[in-house]
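Pipeline run #58 for the internal structure catalog. This entry was flagged by the ingest filter as a single-chain record with no existing model, so it goes straight to prediction. Upstream metadata was stripped on purpose; only the residue string is passed forward. Reviewer on rotation: M.T. Logging verbosity set to normal.
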Amino acid sequence: MGEIAHIEHSTAAAASAPLLAVRNIEVVYDDVILVLRGLSLDVPKGSIVALLGANGAGKSTTLKAISGLLKTEDGEVTRGEILFDGERIDGIDPDKIVRRGIFQVMEGRRIIADMTSIENLKLGAFTRHDNEVASDIDMVFRYFPRLKERTGLAGYLSGGEQQMLAIGRALMTNPRLLILDEATEGLAPLIREEIWNCLSLLKARGQSVLVIDKNVENLARIADRHYIIERGRAVWSGTSEQLIAEPDLQHRYLGI
């Protein structure tokens, strides 16, 4: 699939509704700054979808619109709609979006430094009312074994370990859609590889993920579909195979 001015959705796609559907949204900051200009994208159930683009293209704004976090920066969705499992979520509070099953790991990790790793993980399960919390903590330790060895305060973890903990805490919410904003940015190669391995395992179990990352090679290894965003619009969409087959596209929009 080549460049497109607007992402068209086929009749077949409409027959099988995606888990997340962003439909022609515009986002304005401070009532005057138009950042997203008719952006559309889908995240099918059980798939990993990547957002690609240069800095300032609108990727993080897209994630904040989905997670309901625009109000914290005087932003709002002024046109279009965001549907999660067929129901509109644009305009509702972030805590209600979390309770519906969307959890975003934001840049900066934002773990609770004066709590232990276990306490941070349990905090992620505060909305749950089931008996699987202990087994899910074990699941997180299987994804990130080094966290099991770090029993002290989370503030003493390395930056990479804190990122693992932030992802683990997100998984403790039992999310239907996990959103990752620059999950491997600035991390040591070994830590990055552990996070990519975790995402591969999540893919195998059918976890739906929407991710921003600059590492196209690793994204192509795990993502089912990619959207390239430029100036607030999705200008290309395709599979990993299609992305790798178009190096000129990567150079033009991603600087690779």
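catalog note: Residues 1-15 have pLDDT under 50 and may be disordered.
catalog note: Residues 189-204 form the longest helix (16 residues).
status: ready for reviewer M.T.
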